Amino acid sequence: MKNLVRELAPYLLTKLMSEGGEYGEIFYEKVFSTVLNFENKKLQKGVEGFDEGVGIRLIKNGKTYYGYTNEITKSSLESIVSSLVKESGEGKIKVGIKQQTGYTKVLLDPEDYFPERKKEILLKADDIVRSHDKRIKQANITLKDSKREILIINTEGEIVEDTQIRVAFYVEAIAQENGYMYKGYESTGGLIGYELFESGEVDLIDYVSSKASHRAVLGLNAKHPPAGSMPVVISSDAGGTMIHEAVGHGLEADLAEKGLSVYAGRIGEKVASELVTVIDDGTISGKMGSFNFDDEGVPAQKTVLIEKGYLKNFLYDRLTAMQTGKKSTGNGRRDTYRNVPIVRMRNTYIAPGKDNPHDFIKDIKKGLYVVKMGGGQVNTVNGDFMFEIVEGYMIENGEITYPVKGASLLGNGPKAMEDIEAVGYDLGWAIG
User: b/e map of 191-220 (b: 16 or more CB within 10 Å)?
Assistant: First the structure.
């Protein structure tokens, strides 16, 4: 079907732009996916999925018109184009001037990884979780993989193809004692094949399963922390969640350029401690937010958002870039061909500092050490946020003491960034 889309593209785009428009685009997508869920010592779900379709977009007078179909025929695609063409005028079109192709290079392609081996991963994880502590009563393990092919042909003369392969692994452990139940969770994955589990010095199956088990058991003996304002030390893993939610969304141009962000109109201003440099990068090998091209055919790139405390850039897709006279930063993302692309982050993080993270705690009389965050919410207009703490500990007189439960982290994004006193030299990654 991809070849049919390629063949029809010049005709369809010419017709799409025949009555005016600034930009036209055809987006083809084909996805093979597998989801395996292991619970209560048996395989509860094994699903192989396939999805294929085309989305067609017209941007005209700054407005977006969009249609999609999973019936990839000439008549179906013509019908979408006809429904999108609205007003009279004349559109410009260039097709096929610049062609680019990307492919995720993996050692163990999901298509070639036998189902028996995938089941072995689930069984091993289940055994590790259950053997960790007799108080663990249940294990829930999920293994996902996908192979996504996209083709983007637009009126800028660009033809872009990319193949993206991803693997993700999630483990949930449930511990119970004296009528009280607590869940522990950990995950891993990325733009990578099944070599994720078979290369490197760390046994990821053991690491992820043990982490989830540890958190579940830890929660049984945790205490509620005292309420109030106090210093907080955030691990490198948890810090990614903080930056993504409390800062990153406010730097997406669809919000920032419309005044719906606390960072709106503040380019060039100091918005954080001079120790803070925030980067959004789609080029990091193997990470979940990486790719060769975004869902609008723009090459992946590295964007410095905040540099030594000063706001430098927002994140743009093609539409927000057109509306503001900027260039896309390669942040056009869409869930499937059924969806219009929107501005979304890739891999967002604070650049490593020079401080030893082990030294942060010794000078704190009373504070909180956050190892992992869970769900939360942020108000991008004023920057206020709230996050659940999945794993955290009290700090008392320079030492980590007891684990906490039922704790939440409340604050304001810009204020929290301005109050940062130290940044560790460690850099951690976690998938959302």
Answer: bbbbebbeeeeeebbeebbbbbbbbbbbbb
Q: What pLDDT shows up at residue 88?
A: 37
Q: What angle do CA 194, 199, 201 make, to 5 degrees?
A: 140
Contact between 29 and 336 under an 8 Å Cβ cutoff? The reply is yes
Instruction: Report the pLDDT value the prediction gives residue 61, as an integer from 0 to 100.
Output: 87
* Domain ranges in the chain with CATH number 3.30.2290.10: 2-220
Profile the chain (432 residues) by mean pLDDT over runs of 10 residues.
Answer: 94 92 96 94 90 96 92 95 70 60 85 90 96 96 98 96 97 95 95 90 93 96 94 91 91 94 97 97 96 97 98 98 96 97 96 90 94 91 94 96 94 94 90 74
Q: What is the DSSP string of 276-301?
A: --EEEES-STT-TT--SB-TTSPBP-
Q: Report CA dihedral (235, 237, 241, 243) to the nearest 10 degrees.
A: 70
pLDDT at 97: 58
Cβ distance 222 to 405 under 8 Å?
Answer: yes
- 273: Cβ contacts below 8 Å, ≥ 6 apart: 309, 417, 418, 419, 420, 421
Confidence (pTM): 0.92
Residue 357: predicted pLDDT: 87
Looking at the chain, how many residues does it have? Answer: 432
Which strand (E) or helix (H) includes residue 211? helix 204-220
Contacts of 236 (CB under 8 A, 6+ apart): 357, 424, 426, 427, 428
CB 376 within 8 A of CB 385: yes
Question: What is the residue-wise DSSP string for 112-147?
Answer: GS-HHHHHHHHHHHHHHHHHH-TTEEEEEEEEEEEE
What are 302's two structure tokens? Answer: 């590295």
Angle separating helix axes 74-84 and 2-16, nearest 10 degrees: 30
What letter does residue 244 receive in the DSSP assignment? I
- pLDDT number for residue 432: 66
For residue 89, what pLDDT is reported? 44
Extract long-range pairs of 42-51: CB within 8 Å, 24+ residues apart.
Answer: 43/119, 43/122, 51/336
Homologous superfamily in CATH for domain 2-220: PmbA/TldD superfamily (3.30.2290.10)
